[in-house]
Amino acid sequence: MNTISIENISDPNFDQAKYEKKLQDSRSAVVGTLTGLAIVTIVMVAVGHGAWWSIIPILAVGYGFIDQVVEYRLRKRYASKKEIDAIKAPMGAWFGFILVSFIMTSIFGSFFYWIALIVEVAVFSGGVYTTMDYVNAKKRNFQKRGEQTESADTGSYQEQLSPEPNIVKSNVHELFCATCGNSISSSSEYCPSCGDHI
């Protein structure tokens, strides 16, 4: 059995068989993209003869391979596709920045050429935004889990300290009439039933 997070194991909706199938598919995807990377590299070296544009397909397929490796490693820890995609998003954004920077530098001959710089700054901003979004999401999830834990702990503590229902204890003792046996108040001088003097 693969080592996955406690949250997934404790989830009543977690399907172990489905998880194992997805993990197997992810492992196959790693092998497939590695094969694709080898083929693309051979073709580009043969056709491109060292031209700058021949590097782009190699980088693209290479990123696909890295992406599949990362997903496989993350899937061994997390079962949620949404959580895996959230972790991978900053990686994709920064790879896009590197790829765009390489293309702009190859076309315009300088990283700091004004047209290239505009595009690079835009893609760089996207990388920063994606990273900050991921970090903030992690903080929100951490705080949410903390609040839920604190709420559960407080509720349990309050249950332990909750007072028993108020029981009013009266100092007035119940008296009975010696004549008729009817219940009377200690403050009464006569029995309300038979009228006899107490």
What topology emerges from the helices and strands here?
Blueprint: H1 6-10, H2 16-48, H3 55-75, H4 81-108, H5 114-161, E1 175-176, E2 183-184
Antiparallel strand pairs: 1-2
Keywords: Membrane, Transmembrane, Transmembrane helix
Organism: Promethearchaeum syntrophicum
Transmembrane segments: 28-46, 52-70, 91-108, 114-135
So what's the oligomer here? Answer: single chain
What average pLDDT do the residues reach? 79
Rg, rounded, reads 37 Å
Largest sheet entry: 2 strands, antiparallel
Q: Could you tell me the number of beta strands?
A: 2
User: What letter string, H or E per element, gives the SSE order?
Assistant: HHHHHEE
Give the spatial strand order of the biggest sheet. Answer: 1-2
Poorly predicted tracts of residues? 164-170
Helix content: 55-70%
Q: How far apart lie the N and C ends?
A: 85 Å
Q: Count helical runs.
A: 5
- Find the structural class using helix and strand composition: mainly alpha
Percent of residues in β-strands = under 5%
User: Tell me, what's the shape?
Assistant: elongated
Notable characteristics:
about 70% helix, about 200 residues, two-stranded antiparallel sheet, mainly alpha, membrane, 5 helices, transmembrane, 2 strands
Written description of the protein model:
The protein has 198 residues and is mainly α. The chain has a domain at 17-77 and 91-140. 68% of the residues lie in helices and 2% in strands. A two-stranded antiparallel sheet has the order 1-2. Strand 1 and strand 2 form a beta hairpin. Helix 2 runs antiparallel to helix 3 (55-75). The longest helix is centred in the last third of the chain and has 48 residues, at 114-161. It is elongated, with a radius of gyration of 37 Å. 5% of the residues are buried. Keywords: Membrane, Transmembrane, Transmembrane helix.
